[in-house]
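Service request form, structural biology core

Requester: graduate student, group of Dr. S.
Request type: structure prediction, single chain
Budget code: on file
Notes: please return the result as structure tokens.

Sequence provided:
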Amino acid sequence: MPAIKEAAEAFLSHKRIAVTGVSRTPGSHGSNAVYQRLRERGYEAIAINPNAETVEGDPCYPSLGAVPGGVEAVVIGTRPDRALETVKEASSLGIGEVWMHRGPGGGSVDDAAAAWGREHGMTVIDGGCPLMFGPTADGGHKFMCALFKLSGNVPRSV
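Core staff response, request fulfilled:
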């Protein structure tokens, strides 16, 4: 199993990343923060929300399969009970890397979804936040990363 730092670097080496659970009301959800930061740092972030046609003025798609040209990786920011469906859809589309977002609470992590993804050859980061690593990181997220490694909300390996 790769260490979290190496898995995060590999994930963030992709430039076309879908973010599920992005909300129509930007201040209401952590997915929006991930979506915004990815865009700010030069990524082609794609919003996924089956209940929205646009998010923050950008096109939004109802599913991964609806994204023209596809995506390379997926940040899951929905409720945990939706993670397995997203992991299976990603796998069916040939997307090999997913990141289940998790901050101080339970986040989007679903153990069954993580296990299913790994059993099907996917790299699954089951915790933490892409904003804690590499080119998307900031001081606050780096501090949270160290703290959440102690609590287990950021895995040490994936």
